[in-house]
Amino acid sequence: MNNSIVIRLPSKKRLNAQVPLSSNSFLITPGSVITEDADYMRGHGTYTNDDEEDHKLYASVAGVVERINKLVCVRALKTRYNGEVGDIVVGRIKEVQQKRWKVETNSRLDSVLHLSSVNLPGGELRRRSAADELTMREYLKEGDLISAEVQQVHTDGMLSLHTRSLKYGKLGQGCCVTVSPSLIKRRKNHVHNLSCGVTIILANNGYIWINSTAVDGTKTTGDGGFVVDTEPVQMDDREAICRVRNCILCLSRSSVMLYDTSVLYAYEASLQYQVKELLLDEIATEIVDQTLSLLERESSGNG
Amino acid sequence: MAKAILGDSEKWFIVHGVQDDFRTDGRSCESYRHIELETGILSNTHGSARIRLGSSELLVGVKVELGTPKPQRINEGWLEFHVDCSPNAHPVFQGRGGKELSDNICSMLTRVYRNNTVMDLEALGVIPQKHCWVVHVDVLILECGGNLIDAASIAVKASLYNTGIPNISLTDGDEGEVEINLPDDPEDVKHLKTINCPVLVTLSKIGNRHIVDATDEEECCCSASLVMGVTRRGHTVGVRKMGGGSLDPESLTEMIDSGKKIGRQLHISLDKLLKIEAGMSEDIKQTGYL
């Protein structure tokens, strides 16, 4: 009888990223002095001791020092998502309120999605009636996952989202993976159709959505994207989705930046193993090493 | 239990995956996630174990003390379980939030260990009617990633295997009282016989099939689950049904059979690891928490 249950001693080797640090980055820890020069202005992530004579600038978070002319700020590496206008986010509906939905997007405050910012069935220019307000729960209820774009950032950091395009809306059958927002590389395009038949949305807030490409073709029927397909996903699509999910988890555990190329290289490196084996430490390290060497070769080939 | 909230289509994806025997992380319905176990990491306890099952992490500490035997069982000692849900695991566990979960796990462990065939309780007796060993087993939940009951039971068995009860000697003292002398050497201990200790296997029913080792998201989709205590030989020492859904009799027998098979496999792997660890030299440093 094949015993598939494995219990082992914990591995002592930590999964360290062998990502070479670029010469421009300057990592700092909380409490260390950034500069002793009094000319610099304090940005986010810094503080001074005002009562003393020396004007040393200290860092309050662990991260990378960024200097723009005379402004010094520290961008933290492990942080909640700080939204910017135009970002694509994947969020989960937390509450249904009077004319809006509260969406959880891994930021400091819950984001808000107004009823006027969504596409309702019947065309885009339909006037919102009182009946629409009462049937909000039929469109989006608590627990649903949506993809949306950030329309506005309020002064307190709260985001206003909108799904006013057919490429956004309620997400269908697939898998959601949570990673740290700082691992998602900012690109022009965040929705990728990988060659293995899988579509991934690398949302800026760290929620990555994976589903199969075949289903997406039906999204342009003009019904506002709220009708969800309950047909079972095909077996090879399901295998590809689960493989991509495990690859993304391996990469995020080793703090590798996530973008379409790195995910694709990791997927190709993982094809020699079974999907469930990708969760083991040794195989994860091997896949990450292969991905990093492929990425380095590509960047040194281009540069 | 701290439930993850999922949307309907995500739940459909999981349910269809279970029907195809291909779960979200690629496992089959009857396989466990990667388990890491280490014993003897807390020096101020008589026995301890730390387990990491996927993303669930638990720490078990065992301390023994001398107490009075229960009136119905004057020759025996007993085991006392306590489960603590740390707020580190989930914000819901703040204050009294974790009480329901900890009561569930505690009562299940107490039930399966109350059996006389599981643990030789007479070995815990010292002086009939006067003194006996009371074994306090404390489980601390550090990270919540689904399937806490199974992880707790594996760690409890490992920590009991690791427990050393001081070898006390009895001498006649004044006025006919018997004196209890503790040994000088802290290494002078006797170990408990844990050969028959059970592990708890949770089988969750999703759709028409059942799975083992459910993650947080899978637990959200399951309507009913069965927790059973299984010994090394595959005997069942306790069964409890949890959840609001219904189980029909055929699936019940199917689940119990597969639970016994999986329990046996768990015991084989666990016993192998405990033997390897016991045989390891003292020089090899433990991973612990740093």
Structure description:
- The complex is a heterodimer of chains A (303) and B (290).
- With 303 residues, chain A is an alpha+beta fold.
- Chain A has 6 helices and 18 strands.
- In chain A, the strands form 4 sheets. In chain A, strands 9-10-11-13-12 form a 5-stranded mixed barrel.
- The longest helix of chain A has 22 residues, at 281-302.
- Mean pLDDT of chain A is 85; it is low at 217-224.
- Chain B has 290 residues and is of the alpha+beta class.
- Chain B has helices spanning 8-19, 99-113, 148-162, 216-221, 249-279, and strands at 35-39, 47-53, 56-67, 78-85, 125-127, 131-143, 164-166, 169-172, 178-181, 189-191, 199-206, 209-212, 224-230, 236-242.
- In chain B, the strands form 4 sheets. In chain B, strands 1, 2, 3, 4, 5 and 6 form a 6-stranded mixed beta sheet that branches. Chain B has a 4-stranded antiparallel beta sheet with strand order 12-11-13-14, sandwiched between helices. In chain B, strands 7-10 form a two-stranded antiparallel ribbon.
- In chain B, a hairpin with a 3-residue loop joins β5 and β6 (131-143).
- The longest helix of chain B is centred in the C-terminal third of the chain and has 31 residues, at 249-279.
- Chain B is elongated, with a radius of gyration of 21 Å.
- The A-B interface holds A 1, 3-12, 92-93, 142-145, 170-176, 228-230, 232-233, 235, 238-239, 242-243, 245-246, 274-276, 278-281 and B 5-10, 12-13, 16-17, 19-20, 22-28, 30-38, 52, 154, 261-262, 265-266, 268-270, 272-273, 276-277, 287.
- β1 of chain A pairs parallel with β1 (35-39) of chain B.
Q: What string, H for helix and E for strand, traces the elements of chain A in order? A: EEEEEEEEEEEHHEEEEEEEHHHH
Mean pLDDT of chain A: 85
Helix- and strand-based class of chain A? alpha+beta
Individual helix count of chain A: 6
Largest β sheet strand count, sense and barrel closure of chain A: 5 strands, mixed, barrel
The radius of gyration over CA of chain A amounts to 23 Å
For this entry, what is the oligomeric state of its chains?
A: heterodimer
Radius of gyration of chain B: 21 Å
The SSE string of chain B, one letter per element, is HEEEEHEEHEEEEEEHEEH
What proportion strand of chain A?
25-35%
Give helix % range of chain B: 25-40%
Q: Looking across the biggest beta sheet of chain A, what order are the strands in?
A: 9-10-11-13-12
State the helicity of chain A in percent bands: 10-25%
